[in-house]
Amino acid sequence: MSDEEPRPRRSKKPPAEAAPAEAEHGYRSTRRSSKVAKRGRREERAGAVRDAAAGLGRRIGRGLALGVAFIAGIALLGLIVVLTVNGINGLARWNAERRAQELARQAVQAKSHENLLVIGVQDGQSTGFLAMRVDRKASRVFGIAIPDGAFVEVPGQGFERIGDSYKAGPDVSLATMSNYLSVPFDYYVTVDDAVYKSMLKAQDVSGLMPAVLGTNLTPADRADLTSALSGVTTKNVGLAPLPVRSITIGGVTYYEPQRDQIADLLFSWWGVRLGSGKQAVRVILYNGAGKPGVAGVAARALIKAGFRIVDTGNADRFDYATTQVILYNGDPADAIRVRDILGTGVVSRRTQTQDIADVVVIIGRDYASKH
Fold it and tell me: What angle, 0 to 180 degrees and rounded to 10, lies between the N-to-C axes of helices 332-342 and 294-304?
């Protein structure tokens, strides 16, 4: 046998499992735990940042909401202030315009004592009408002569020859002239046709008052006017004919007045500006009571108050118990003033579009019974 030591036998049993090693300590273990802790701290910080951001966002949102609400409130307040100011300014402008219109109307009305309607007559019929203004301070006389056949609105009669107004009386002629020119005429004189024509041709008014046939002037006013006219020289007299366009209907010649052609004279002599739309409220009068002449009575009352009558006639029926004052255009105060002048009536408003009249009046029995 060999001297070598025998090799050990291999055991057929599986080797016993090694006991589990104890948890590792030291550098690696500390490093791993440090990473976990850092990760946790990072997550905590991230969460805190997210919470802070969310809180900041909420605070910013609330701040923005409050800011927007504040700005909106300021804007609303500013809008209210602007609307209030505009409303006040608008009311002030409206009042100023109304006041200016009223002052203009009063200024024209105040000069009515300077106005005189001269009517030429022959055989009891009118032959011509002279709307005259006597400026006593400047010793001047101005006038517009309208032929008897001029076709105008005669209050209470409709569109007729102006000569037809005299058939109803000088008062109707005064109302007709006032209405047509938008100038108040309260006084008249009648003279023979020959005197009337001579005055126009010679532009001389010195002989007018001594030739008067009829008048509504008081003796004192007549004497004052006689004195005023006697000192007016012909160079200070301007009597102009109203331009007309002749129209022949059924063999009868009418004259269509061309009022626009004397607009400058009306403004210069009486301060009336045609076409301004603010000189006079336009009124249509209808007789709804069936009493003859009652619309003419109402028309003259309104004309004296500064309204302009654009048409008169009969209503659709004659059984209106209450006078109707219907506003179509303009200020409700105008309709109320119409009612106050008539002394009765119910005011209403219509929205129908038309540009003929501002106010339509249907005279009822309540007005007719008093006139």
Answer: 120
The per-residue pLDDT for 182 is: 85
Within a domain: 298:
yes
Domain count, the chain: 1
The 8-class DSSP code of residue 24 comes to P
Domain that holds residue 340: 280-371
* Percentage of the chain lying above the pLDDT 70 cut: 68
- 293 in a structural domain: yes
Alpha carbon separation from 140 to 85, 143, 146, 158, 180 (Å, rounded)? 48, 10, 20, 35, 23
The Cα–Cα gap between 214 and 351 comes to 47
CATH of the domain at 366: 3.30.70.2390
Pairing assessment for the beta strands 237-241 and 140-147 based on DSSP bridges: parallel
Q: Which residues of the chain have pLDDT under 50?
A: 1-2, 18-24, 27, 91, 94, 96-97, 100, 103-104, 107-108, 277
**pTM of the predicted model as reported, rounded to 2 decimal places:** 0.60
Q: Is residue 146 part of a domain?
A: no
